[in-house]
Amino acid sequence: MGVAVTVAVSGRPRSGAVPPPLGAVEAAGLGVPDVLTRLGSGTQGLAEGEAARRLGIVGANAVRSYRARPWPVLLSQLRSPLLILLAVTALASAFLGQVSDAVIIGVILVASVGLGFANEYKAAKTAEALHSSIHHRCVVRRDGHPRDLDVAGLVPGDVVDLQLGQVVPADLRLLDVAGLECDESVLTGESMPTEKSVKPVPAGTPLAELTSCALMGTVVRAGSGSGVVVATGGAAEFGRIALGLGQRQPETEFQVGLRKFSLLLVRVAGVLTGAIFIINVALHKPVIDALLFSLSIAVGISPQLLPAVVSTSLAAGSRQLARRKVLVKRLVCIEDLGDVDVLFTDKTGTLTEGSLRFMRSTGPDGRADEEPLLLGLICNEAVVEDGRAVGGNPLDVALWDSPAAAGQQAALARCHRLATLPFDHERRLVSVLTEDDRGHRMVITKGAPEGLLKRCTSVPTAAQTALDSEFAAGNRVIAVATKEAAGQSSLTPADEQDLAFRGILVFLDPPKPTARAALQRLAGLGVTVKILTGDNPAVAAKVCADLGLPPGQVATGADIDRAGDRLADLLAHTTVFARVSPEHKAQIVAAQRATGTDVAFLGDGVNDAIALHAADVGISVDSATDVAKDAADVLLLEKDLDVLADGVMGGRQIFANTIKYVLMGTSSNFGNMFSAAGASIFLAFLPMLPSQILLNNLLYDSSQLAIPTDEVDPELVAQPTRWDLGFIRKFMLFFGPVSSVFDFVTFGIMLWVFHAGPVLFHTGWFVESLATQTLVIFVIRTRRIPFFRSRPSVPLVLAAFAVVIVGAVLPFTPLGHVLGFGPLPGPFFLALAGIVVCYLLLIEIGKFWFYRLYQAPAAAEPRHRTAGFRVHRRAARFTTHTLRLARGRPPVRQMPASLGSGADR
Asked: Can you spell out the DSSP letters for 787-803?
């Protein structure tokens, strides 16, 4: 901390070749003039033309790029070992004379891969558009003027301004600092912020002690400064680490569940495939035919289009959420948003309007007094242009823009600020050293009343009474104090002692009109809302009570410290946590997660970053500080709990529709494959040709691609839902045999009623199995009575019946003959109708008893973050996109919302 230190060096940007690389370690040991000379730059930065030329040579300031490329998507479709083995076996059968069968299998495989590719590539394009909509910008000096620039456009030699809450956009050699401290834990693991200066460090200084540099990916925790870019992208220290971790993102909870489910089906498919192959070979059937048939069965039961169904669901969900003002950084985060059990949020802007209004100032005797107002205007960090506040802490902006402030302009003109001790979240204070036109110097301090009053020599009883009254009314309060400073020229935290109390400033932040309904809606979704605030406990409790959120026991930071290992007990009956520090917030979030619940945290300040990282789902707002947006998984374009409720609902709807496909694949589809294994024992021929099995699977999967459009019953989104492999396994073992029963009924009808040979038998079972496994979606998709109490979407109805009709008509076409089908007798379709109706009725009855008997498991185990999680997450802000490398434009002057002396920080 301390007075601003600036090294002024004139320099003229040079043209020509780009200067040789200069790493942070080397730059830290050089003086500022030497660094600027090496980089061909100056304190006023580069010229626009020179910066553009360098960008074309050194490339974007990014460690990753994101573009939807068709070839990687196609290769992901071809990575299935089953598909490759089936294609090789089909090729072998062609060499053995079965050319037509091999061609048919090949065509169906190409169609299946093409269907998956088309849907996944469309989802990848949606993700690309999502990436391009999320921008990270910084203020850079070009041609001697500040410009607002995408961080990807930075080049060595650029001069960048740093503010509280900002993520450092590149490796910088510092030019000036004002109490600058950086959190470098993402690089060094050190939890304490590092104080910065402009003085060179000795040669050989380790990375954790480069005090003259601000390193890419670290966070400005206090103060401000500026620096010249010495390294960008993969050449920066953070870039090297991020590149070393590779492109693969850490798995979300949804992806873990998806992977475990896929492994379950692979094991089932392996058992069935092996058993069917052994049975057919033992019955002396041709080995190639038996192998093709077995592999086709494996392909049929494997979740081949599950990635496409999931991708389609997530892509559609992201578009819906974007229309509801919710942006997800990665598509899979939508599912995790739907898992949320507990939401921790701050009070300002979520429960309250967030539009602060200055009401009054009172003196030490509790009576109206304008002196605290004048002192508060002098000790103010608002960014002011033409007499208007254009940025800064909301409390400072509200004070400056109040009508009462207009009458103090003449008095303000007589004062001059000599030094500033910026606000931080540990002191919860801001102080200035001022001098008036008579040479009188004074320290003015303002901030949270509890902390400031302890630093005062005395506080009148009337002042404490007035303070308690304002807190009880739910008003925001800032205390003001002063201290004589004759001959003083700098400020340190030690100067914030032995102060004289001068009064309070009172602000109104009324409850948001929509907050009560939003809280009720979240409660209806099974989400418990808890408040984490830096505000006074009485104020927080009053606001919650006014909005119908029972505050219960209100705990403070001191209570959390005293709780120690018993923090979980405190969480159980506490709704409001007041006067909490950033570390307390993270501690509370971690303790809640340890209970087995999924936790979301909504925050927008630099002090919220630790808790955002600790939560299962970090949520921030578009107007938040850089570090908060960087730490978040989800961004709200509007800070409104109702918008968040839309996001939770959307996540659960997508998960519910994904589970519909999963249950389909593990019940009727599994049953059909089980039937094939059984039929192999007593039939002299294969129950269905390999090409017919693959076609059956392709048509069935095509109908399921409409599932993302389906309606979801209210009870399926009323509570958080998670992957439950035990439930899926029981569902498969319960409903799979029911499907097989009707397959064997079909076998009996074909053999004993229609006296079918191989062609007619293949055709009859193909049509029956396709009809039953496709139409059962209308029963499985809901726990209610289908159509009467739960109606499917129109696209799903059309897709399902279209596929059934195609399957029924196909045997009568020339293509059917090529595929080995033959015309079916008319009475078969009467039998088919009876089989389908009885099957759906039996499934409906079974569904009723299954859900009555099934017991959901206890709370899930808390998830654990993988190694490199924080680096991966922060590296996302250094991702380039071709649409984003625009030239700099004049900046909008903004100060991070975490600045200032707000009492609730």
From this structure: TTTBPPPHHHHHHHHHH
Cα 869 from Cα 887, distance rounded (Å) = 32
468 is catalytic: no
Residue 820 identity (one-letter amino acid): G
For residue range 779-805, list pLDDT tens digits in order. 999 999 998 889 999 999 999 999 999
Q: CA-based angle 189:195:196, to the nearest 5?
A: 110
**Strand-pair category, 599-602 with 574-578:** unpaired
- 726-749 as b/e, with b when 16 or more CB fall inside 10 Å? ebbebbbebbbebbbebbebbbeb
Instruction: Using CB atoms within 10 Å of the CB of residue 842, give its burial: 0 to 12 exposed, 13 to 18 middle, 19+ buried.
Output: middle
pTM of structure: 0.70
**For residue 176, what are its two tokens?**
């000036």
pLDDT per residue over 108-130, tens digit each? Answer: 677 767 776 776 677 667 666 65
SS3 100: helix
Among residues 158, 346, 559, 701, which one is catalytic? 346
**Which range scores top for mean pLDDT: 229-243, 383-397, 599-613, 798-812?**
798-812
Distance CA 147, CA 141 (A): 6
CA distance 28 to 200: 6
The contacts of residue 338 (CB under 8 Å, 6+ apart) are 648, 649, 650, 651, 652, 653, 654, 655, 717, 720, 721
CA–CA–CA angle 878, 884, 890 (5° rounding) = 100
492-547 pLDDT, tens digit each: 888 999 999 999 999 988 888 888 999 999 998 989 999 998 788 888 888 888 88
For 565, 627, 631, 897, 899, the CA distances from 607, given in Å and listed in that order, are: 23, 9, 11, 11, 10
Task: Name the CA radius of gyration of the chain, rounded.
Answer: 34
Other CB atoms closer than 10 Å to residue 244's CB: what's the count? 10
Please tell me the distance from the alpha carbon of residue 198 to that of residue 379, in angstroms, as a whole number.
Answer: 27
